[in-house]
Amino acid sequence: MSLMITDECINCDVCEPECPNGAISPGEEIYVIDPSLCTECVGHFDEPQCQQVCPVDCIPHDPQHAESQDQLYAKYQLIVSSVG
């Protein structure tokens, strides 16, 4: 599944630059994650980097966007192929 940012976000700005897919951006009140770009860092890292750096632990899995590891990897390949 992709990840989401909850309203516990303190807008500390540390997650956005850590996302290798550019899925994190400032929203109206808190940062948001674009589920079409979030691969949970599959293809880049072993663990989601945004979760690793978040000081308030406000980046859980998004139950509305459930995806398997294979689906996340396929999304990663699509993103990488469209960039290059």
From TrEMBL:
Record GO terms (molecular function): 4 iron, 4 sulfur cluster binding; metal ion binding
Keywords per UniProt: 4Fe-4S, Electron transport, Iron, Iron-sulfur, Metal-binding, Repeat, Transport
CC annotations in GO: cytoplasm
Pfam families recorded: Fer4_7
Domain 4Fe-4S ferredoxin-type: 1-29, 31-64
Keyword Cell inner membrane: no
PANTHER family the UniProt entry points to: PHOTOSYSTEM I IRON-SULFUR CENTER, PHOTOSYSTEM I IRON-SULFUR CENTER-RELATED
NCBIfam families per UniProt: di_4Fe-4S_YfhL
Official protein name in the record: Ferredoxin
